[in-house]
User: Which sequence fits this backbone?
């Protein structure tokens, strides 16, 4: 089944404790992206990647890191999480970039205390 | 900053009625897409309209795009209770960024 998977689905952590949210897609998509969703703000793009080893900042990259060492994986790293990073995070992929429909993962609900 | 702004923020209609929601954006675009999200779940792509298209249909969905006014509308005809969800527009413009609006929350009452 074609899908985007994210892990974990739920995470409660403390300020400053490094964490990684994994994202994987099995559709051989070139483009992958991370978003955060907050009430009243819609989805905001954090980082995106056009291909392996090619990443770029979205609208809200501060406090996040990403890597794209393999085509199928695009982990989101929070080196020192803070409470303002409490949010619902979505990973998405598309076949060839912004012009194509994106397939979304189920989301990761992160709480930083 | 948010590129797309949906209007209205919330909409409540009776089953069988049509639902119209609007999206406005600020800069030139390559295409505009509409997505649907059931409560707290991942978004599902509905329809894509390119900047050189004015109207597009998919089943009960009709999307229009007016690039001179920088706006788009999504019409859902003969709504069903299962259409209850949030609807987002997304614009693809410069570089490879995609910008989502704040969404319209649609409630269809059986």
Assistant:
């Amino acid at each position: 089944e074609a899908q985007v998977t994210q892990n974990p689905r739920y995470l409660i952590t403390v300020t400053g404790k490094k964490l990684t949210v994994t994202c994987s897609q099995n559709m051989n998509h070139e483009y992958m992206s991370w978003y955060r969703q907050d009430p009243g703000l819609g989805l905001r793009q954090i980082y995106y990647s056009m291909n392996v080893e090619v990443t770029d900042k979205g609208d809200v990259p501060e406090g996040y890191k990403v890597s794209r060492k393999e085509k199928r994986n695009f982990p989101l790293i929070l080196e020192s999480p803070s409470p303002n990073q409490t949010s619902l995070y979505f990973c998405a992929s598309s076949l060839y970039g912004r012009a194509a429909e994106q397939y979304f993962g189920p989301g990761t609900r992160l709480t930083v205390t | 900053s948010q590129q797309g702004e949906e209007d209205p923020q919330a909409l409540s209609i009776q089953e069988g009625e049509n639902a119209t929601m609007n999206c406005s954006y600020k800069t030139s675009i390559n295409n505009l897409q509409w997505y649907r999200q059931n409560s707290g779940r991942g978004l599902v792509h509905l329809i894509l309209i390119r900047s050189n298209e004015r109207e597009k249909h998919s089943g009960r969905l009709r999307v229009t795009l007016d690039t001179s006014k920088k706006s788009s509308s999504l019409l859902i005809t003969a709504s069903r209770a299962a259409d209850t969800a949030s609807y987002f527009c997304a614009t693809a413009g410069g570089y490879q960024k995609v910008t989502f609006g704040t969404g319209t929350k649609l409630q269809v009452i059986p």
